[in-house]
User: Fold this.
Amino acid sequence: MRIAILTSFRRMPDSYSLVNDVRDQVKTLKKYGHEVVFFAQTTCEGQGIDCEIKAILPHFRLEKDVENKEAKEELIKIFRKELKDFDVVITHDLLFIRQYFTYRKAIMECDIPVKWVHWVHSALGERLALKMPHAKYIYMNYADASRFAEHIGVGMEDVRVVFNDKDPRFFFDWHEITRQIADKYDLFNKDIIQTYPMCTTRMGSKGIDHVIKVFSKLKKLGNNVLLIIVNSNGRKRTEEIEQKLKSAYEQGLDKGDILFTSTICSESASGVPRRVVRDLMTISNLFIFPSLSEVCPNVLLEASITKQLIVINRDFPALFDFGEDGKTCLAYNFGSLIKAGFRYRTEEGYANLAKEINEHLIHSKSNQQFLKIMKATNIDTIYHKQLEPLLYEKY
Assistant:
């Protein structure tokens, strides 16, 4: 499908939120195979726009509710020439804002055989009469959509809701390896995510078996889980990695529930950049830390400053410099070099710990809000649930 993005941008400052919305929209449409062309004024350089750019629209003085007839006729000529072969033309604010009155008149009078999608990003003042053929009007929440329809003089059958995206890939400027993990493991629809950085040679001392056991119990409680082991030195330990994965599968986890980053691509086989660890930490919400040997554990500090629920090893006193059991974190008797803790390491013990973790995460309003927004406003959800049906419906 050929899609035009029609804006009046002269410049593209990062501080202007609409600029970032349009950049993300272009990335979304291109990800799903659409041919996209971005239109703007002649002075616009199109910074951050990852598609063909046509900076061909004239610059003229914008006045509220004033029609510049000369500029309107020039715009109509451009629209008729440049937009006629597109399937869909998406406009941003051009129909709704008073200073874009000339753009509004040109769009409504150009009479070209395309589908129009008119996006509003700003609060509206006066009532408008914007009904035109082959057009849908985009509002960004469901609660006010009917009021919006009445305000612009169209029926609810002509209004669609599409949220602003807040996709971590774009908002946090993720590394390419992190993006590959997101695509392969459905990262944004998980309920519980742990990122555990470690050297593959130290899986035993880092207690990865304990974490796997707890994650298998968390999954049995109905959670969609993902344990991401960010491992360095993976090339020399492929057999050990396979054994850990086999053990995890035997306990009820599947290939979408656990991964070693060394298996993602050739670039990650020996390790990943620190930036990837940061990326993954920002969307993780649980950090179980059964480590047996630490001095001042960086991974625990990183998980803490990214506001995750922390579970530390009650049998390792040094960890309590960095967390208080029952006050800032949870603790469990995983055992240590100075204390065995065997009697706690049972199926029932791990199940009870999983239930305690689950209760904390369910009753954490900040965690539930994080999950709600991450699941609803990533570009994949927005595209499949809101944008794709709009692009392909007949109107």
Notes: The two ends are 16 Å apart (CA to CA).
